[in-house]
Amino acid sequence: xxxxxxxxxxxxxxxxxxxxxxxxxxxxxxxxxxxxxxxxxxxxxxxxxxxxxxxxxxxxxxxxxxxxxxxxxxxxxxxxxxxxxxxxxxxxxxxxxxxxxxxxxxxxxxxxxxxxxxxxxxxxxxxxxxxxxxxxxxxxxxxxxxxxxxxxxxxxxxxxxxxxxxxxxxxxxxxxxxxxxxxxxxxxxxxxxxxxxxxxxxxxxxxxxxxxxxxxxxxxxxxxxxxxxxxxxxxxxxxxxxxxx
Length: 245
Known about the structure:
Number of strands: 4
Low-confidence stretches: none
Number of helices: 13
Oligomer: single chain
Strand content: 5-15%
């Protein structure tokens, strides 16, 4: 909510609400899942380009950086957005969770409707599975086993997100409860997955706050402080850090 307020106020100050464009949050910011040092991904959809629009958007992005936000931004027409989604699975995934913020809502809704019609579910699934296998190979080496990345390592947040993205693409639902209601998973599985999701998000938030920066890896130097911060106690021969890990 705080980031939305900053983005909207900055957009108004730069005159974006007076131009023919739509500002949308995409990716993690789009699904409203923010962490203390998360970057934010912002999409600006335009009907056409002109010098006034380019200058206003450039000022908008610059002002967000000056506020201390790490911003990933893209400016595209509707046709360019559809083409980018077909060419790049990461762009297609981020746009799946797009959330309208400001401007021409009809432009945003028309573009997102076109995107949903052109999204090939089988291609999306195969691409995400390939992407996941490649990520697992990269993060499954010994250093990452001892100092896992809570987001990218096997069993981390990204794996849960891939499950949700594929289910959402196939219209089974947008969250664990909806997936259970659709029959894709059981109520018990939905409960366990939601608990795991909550645990990993909790650990990632604490990790960001302890390191005072964007940090997703449970390095040795932070494991003890993180375990104590999360309330872990000595269990038999296990120290708090060992109990957490």
